[in-house]
Amino acid sequence: MTHHWPAWSVFCSGGLRPPHELPPTPPKVGRAVLCPPQSAIRNPQSAIREAQAEVRVPPTLNPPFSSLRRQLPGHSFLLATIRCLRRLLPLLLLLLCGVFQARADSGGAGTINLNIGGAGLNQPVDVDSAIKILAVMTLLTLAPSIILLMTCFTRIVIVLSFVRSALSLQGAPSNQIIIGLSLFLTFFIMAPVWQKIDQEALEPYRAKQITSAEALERAAGPLRTFMLHQTRPKDVELFAGLAKLGPMPADQLPLKVVIPGFIISELRTAFQMGFLLFIPFILIDLVVATVLMSMGMMMMPPMTISLPLKILLFVLVDGWHLVVSSIVQSFAT
Is the CB of residue 277 less than 8 Å from the CB of residue 162? Predict the structure, then answer.
């Protein structure tokens, strides 16, 4: 019996091979095989592992900067060193300029002498000007803290912060407004003290009637008097006992005893005023919470009702006027 295979004749005449003799198509790298073998169907986990092993992802030639930073353990230390040097550079330049100016004023005619080794051992070295400039620069960095802690600023800013907390307001008034109001109130309250310091210490020093040491001693007198009027004797006695000082007049107490006693007294007074400010607003919260519980509105936050009532009460009684007047009168001597 004769069978005709047209497809077979085409394969033979055209040089093509039948499908069962074609070589298998190699799997492409990085692509999943769409038709897995029967063994993969029977064991899918092994087939997944083999497919993952066949996928080859070429490594990146240019790794990101974050990975490069992780590979360098000293990178953060280097950046911190550069930032520190950048901040210290203006200070060093000012210090060098001051030293050169002092040398020029002392008769050096602006010349710079660099002695290496023992060439200048027999010549006296003038370092007094450099030490003074360094002391002034250090004092300028500590001046804000000294001004804030030796004046009435501490009490004012704490009381105003308590007012904002009692009203349950997080951002109104803002910190900038509170600090600015505290600074202006500080200038107003401390104006008599500054005037006395200017008359007794600064004017004679500018007229070259007293030395710098005498000017500092005279300027410390009005500040010491102001701080002692606002300091409890108990706090002064605490630090005088810790410093092991004997009995002495109040005007002769050193500032190292007066200043810490004044600070803790200011903190105590500010917290007492803050507690008194909290009492009416706490009563409003209690009343609102009780009313909501009695009405069965337990899911409504009491703050939703009490906050407008607090603001309304504070505005009706002219709260800012009362607070500021109380703060200013608390420093009356």
Answer: yes
Nearest to 156 by CA among 287, 292, 273: 273
Cis peptide before 192 (omega within 30 of 0): no
- Collapsing DSSP to helix, strand or coil, 107 comes out as helix
Asked whether the beta carbons of 219 and 201 are under 8 A apart, the reply is: yes
pTM check: above 0.85:
no
At which residue do the structure tokens 């008034």 appear? 173
Amino acid 25 reads: T
Which residue from 310, 309, 308, 289 is spatially nearest to 300, judged by alpha carbons? 289
Helix-helix angle 175-189:153-166, to 10 degrees: 140
**Cα separation, 225 vs 213, whole angstroms:** 19
Q: What gap in Å lies between CA 314 and CA 321, rounded to an integer?
A: 10
Distance CA 323, CA 155 (A): 12
- The whole-angstrom distance between residue 268's C-alpha and the CA centroid of its chain comes to 25
DSSP designation for 202: I
Question: Taking the mean position of all CA atoms in its chain, how far away is CA 51?
Answer: 53
SS3 state at 115: coil
List, for residues 227-250, the tens digit of each pLDDT value: 999 999 899 989 988 888 888 888
Q: How far apart are CA 307 and CA 263, in angstroms?
A: 33
Secondary structure string (H, E, C) spanning 214-280: HHHHHHHHHHHHHHHHCCCHHHHHHHHHHCCCCCCCHHHCCHHHHHHHHHHHHHHHHHHHHHHHHHH
Rounded Cα distance between 128 and 206, Å, is 21
Burial of 153 per CB tally in 10 Å (0-12, 13-18, 19+): buried
- C-alpha separations of 26 from 47, 48, 85 in Å: 16, 18, 61
Report the amino acid identity of residue 30. Answer: G
pLDDT tens figures, 176-235: 999 999 999 999 998 999 899 888 888 888 888 888 888 888 888 888 899 999 999 899
What Cα–Cα distance (Å) separates residue 311 from each residue in 103, 161, 166, 284? 64, 16, 10, 11
